[in-house]
Design a protein that fits this description.
- The protein is mostly helical.
- The protein has a domain of 109 residues: Winged helix-like DNA-binding domain superfamily/Winged helix DNA-binding domain (Arc Repressor Mutant, subunit A, Orthogonal Bundle).
- The chain has a two-stranded antiparallel sheet with strand order 1-2.
- A hairpin with a 2-residue loop joins strand 1 and strand 2.
- Helix 1 crosses helix 5, helix 2 packs across helix 4 and helix 3 packs across helix 4.
């Protein structure tokens, strides 16, 4: 006979169920835009979108991977016209990565899709449930920090 779930395991399972819904939204956003990005490439775009321009070493630090992984991902993004790589005007020995207009547009459209999908789900909840969820998700995001991938061993994220 199985033991009843503990409160802790029930909490973990609830977050896993919610994460499945969020991952499904992410997957649909990529499918609906005909985007051919790998997860590391998408992560580079998100980091640059939120924190750029950055040098490749800083992007690698954010991702918790070896700089060569970032370089490969950026090479593809530069070829695709989503990222621009230029000399740093303050230090010509360094390169800076910036989003192109095309990259900003693509990231914006993917995030807009996700906002709309999440908004449709939130509309099914009562105002009190939305408020409670907002507070809980803010606390969860704060606990994860700016770079939640740093909570995991690099081998989980590096590809």
């Amino acid at each position: 006979m199985a033991e009843p779930p503990t409160e802790s395991s029930r909490q973990v399972e609830a977050v896993l169920r919610a994460s499945k819904a969020l991952v499904a939204i992410v997957a649909r956003s990529f499918a609906d835009t005909d985007t051919q990005l790998t997860l590391p490439q998408w992560r580079v775009l998100v980091i640059l979108h939120g924190h750029g321009p950055l040098n490749p070493g800083a992007v690698a630090q954010w991702m918790g991977v070896h700089p060569s992984n970032t370089t490969r991902a950026c090479d593809v993004l530069v070829k695709a016209g989503l990222v621009d790589r230029r000399e740093n005007p303050d230090d010509r020995r360094q390169m800076l990565l910036t989003m192109t207009d095309q990259g900003e547009t693509m990231v914006g459209s993917l995030l807009d899709f996700r906002r709309d999908a999440i908004g449709a789900i939130l509309a099914k909840l009562s105002a009190a449930q939305r408020q409670q969820l907002t507070e809980s998700m803010e606390a969860f995001a704060d606990a994860a920090g700016d770079s939640p991938e740093r909570l995991m061993p690099p081998s989980v994220w590096a590809t």
